[in-house]
Amino acid sequence: MKLCVFDFDSTLMDGETIDFLAAPLGLKDKVAEITEMAMRGELDFFESLITRVKLLEGLEVEQVKRICQNLPFMPGAKETVEELKKRGYKVVVFSGGFRCATSYAREVLGLDADFSNILHSKDGYLTGLVGGEMMFDFSKGDMLERLQRLLGISKEDTVAVGDGANDRSMFKYAGKRVAFCAKDILKREANIIIEKRDLREILNYID
Predict the structure, then answer these.
(1) How many CB atoms lie within 10 A of CB 170?
(2) Burial degree of 119 (CB within 10 A; 0-12, 13-18, 19+)
(3) CB contact set of 45 (below 8 Å; sequence gap of 6+)
(4) pLDDT tens-place string over residues 82-98
(5) Distance of alpha carbon 82 from alpha carbon 174, whole angstroms
(6) Residue 89: beta bridge partners?
(7) Which pLDDT band holds residue 39 (cuts at 50, 70, 90)?
């Protein structure tokens, strides 16, 4: 058995979920600026996440659901997942974003599992609070190590694919470290760099 772990935002999905959610509130540019700084490693991920989610307070849950079920996938996402599974990989997504998006993507793309955060809501509206498995800079690496131990999969049989600073922690546990259209901070720690916005490019580097 082999394992391939993808980041979600700007990797499996073409964009940032939280930026799409901020748009109806007129806050897309403000949130996107914070997101960009966090992905470049200029802000602590936890602090940036808390700050951005607070700005979503008052957004209707039904609207969140509609947005998350209409996010654009990266070109080649479905084909890449299907091919990896044919090659014997378990394919998982780790996201510092939100379950409302990753669980839908799991079903559409045929992923084996998704690990992400949950937007808290009350009386049908977001409260501006968030909790979950992927809140910190170290979260993805921590979860990857535990998943490897559970499944009995080695570092050599693990592929990690991401684009931003909070994906660095995964690279420590992956034999193949793919920086996909990534920020410089992640490219420096990758052994595979892909600049073309088509996930099928990854298949050229994977057994």
Answers:
(1) 28
(2) buried
(3) 38, 96, 135, 136, 137, 165, 166
(4) 999 999 999 999 999 99
(5) 21
(6) 2
(7) confident
Beta pairing, strands 176-180 & 158-162: parallel
CA distances (Å), origin 77, targets 59, 105, 109, 190: 29, 10, 7, 20
Active-site entry in 9, 114, 137, 157: 9
Count CB-CB contacts under 10 A for residue 23.
Answer: 13
Rounded Cα–Cα distance for residues 163 and 40 (Å)? 9
| Predicted local distance difference test score (pLDDT) of residue 20 | 96
How many whole angstroms separate alpha carbon 18 and alpha carbon 41? 17
113 in Cβ contact with 107 (< 8 Å):
no
Question: Domains in the chain: how many in total?
Answer: 1
Q: In 71-138, which ranges are continuous DSSP H helix?
A: 77-86, 99-109
**Phi–psi pair at 75, nearest 5 degrees:** -50, 135
User: Is 7 known to be catalytic?
Assistant: yes
- Please compute, for residue 70, the number of CA atoms within 13 A of its CA located in the half-sphere on the CB side: 8
β-sheet bridge partners, residue 2: 89
Query: Has 14 been annotated as catalytic?
Result: no
Q: Please, how many CA atoms are within 13 Å of residue 53, restricted to the half-sphere of its CB?
A: 23
Residue 48 belongs to a domain with what CATH number? 3.40.50.1000
Q: Return mean pLDDT, the chain.
A: 96
**Range of the structural domain that residue 145 is part of:** 2-204
